[in-house]
């Protein structure tokens, strides 16, 4: 390969293949027997008839297709296990940075624990992997954004790693979200969710944490912006093809002015449209406003025609009414605010005495935008960065 200086002048096919394997091993973090790892990596990441059939049919796969898969796996792994390179480093390779994908490493561990080349066991492991994680980006990423040009999902590589335990307080809110999401994952009836409340109280973080907690159970997140609401039918059609997974379509900080028409796409998608919401999709939205469409006093004025006034009011509240579960987030009390700071500092190995914590924390709150989790996090960052 051109970027490998020591090999760039050679034309021998063996050298070229060796260089290609090294490049792949470094790029994807493959270790051990590089060729065997490369075969496994491709089976895990490149869509094939087995993985797409499992996705499309919610985990179901026919015996004849399994038999065909068993035949191909037998050939592939027989060759991979006997791969013998004249270069010793290819049979026990250590990449500069090892692949850190949770799903891929789980697959490697399961295969490495096999004794010998048991084709039936290998087939069983791969089918279990496809059912649990999917294939390619769906297996590798927890969250996605929608590309308007290609109409494809783009994996978010650096998704926030927050967990529910990282959110101090809000026990009731987290319980409501956890139970609704668990029902959704278990194929039971579940509601679309609107998380409402003051800024910085952890509404968005709660949704992200739910996805991190339930990634191995097949939950994924697709973030949409307000201008992308017109693409909701295309997004839902795409997600229908991944029937073995469960998706939260997430819209953050959602609200509409009366002149904005995007909310009508959302209303229709949630309830009332010709096309039903796919069974593997729920919509979670956050907002600082209980009623998502801005309403003025004029809309409720008695001077308006009675019929028009009622219609106007109904229109403004009809969108939020389509969310079956509304979870309210309130600003933390002073005690809760200081507890958030204390817990965050403790995670960084810092202990503050109660009086210093109170004085410093409240001083920071008064000079910022109020008492909430975001303000507490900003205080901790400043304290750790300047002490």
Keywords:
single chain, 387 residues, alpha/beta, Rossmann fold, 3 domains, 7-stranded mixed beta sheet, 16 helices, 10% strand, globular
Secondary structure: helix percent: 40-55%
Strand content: 5-15%
> Sheet bearing the most strands, described?
7 strands, mixed
Total number of domains:
3
Fold-level CATH name of the largest domain: Rossmann fold
**H/E element sequence:** HHHHHHHEEHEHEHEHEHHEHHH
Give the strand order, joined by hyphens, for the main sheet: 2-1-4-5-6-3-7
Descriptive account of the structure:
- It is a single chain.
- The chain is of the alpha/beta class.
- It folds into 3 domains: 5-138, no CATH class; 141-329, P-loop containing nucleotide triphosphate hydrolases (Rossmann fold, 3-Layer(aba) Sandwich), CATH 3.40.50.300; 334-386.
- Helices cover 49% and strands 10% of the residues.
- The protein has 16 helices and 7 strands.
- It has a 7-stranded mixed β-sheet with strand order 2-1-4-5-6-3-7.
- The model is unreliable at 1-11 and 311-316 (pLDDT under 50).
Structure at a glance:
By secondary structure, this protein is of the alpha/beta class. It has helices at residues 13-28, 34-45, 49-56, 63-81, 102-112, 119-133, 137-140, 171-185, 203-213, 232-240, 263-270, 297-300, 306-321, 334-347, 354-366, 373-386, and strands spanning 143-147, 152-155, 193-197, 219-223, 246-251, 281-287, 325-329.
Give the arrangement of secondary structure elements.
Layout (H helix, E strand, L loop, with lengths): L12 H16 L5 H12 L3 H8 L6 H19 L20 H11 L6 H15 L3 H4 L2 E5 L4 E4 L15 H15 L7 E5 L5 H11 L5 E5 L8 H9 L5 E6 L11 H8 L10 E7 L9 H4 L5 H16 L3 E5 L4 H14 L6 H13 L6 H14 L1
Parallel strand pairs: 1-4, 3-6, 3-7, 4-5, 5-6
Antiparallel strand pairs: 1-2
Helix pairs in contact: 1-2, 4-6, 5-6, 14-15, 14-16
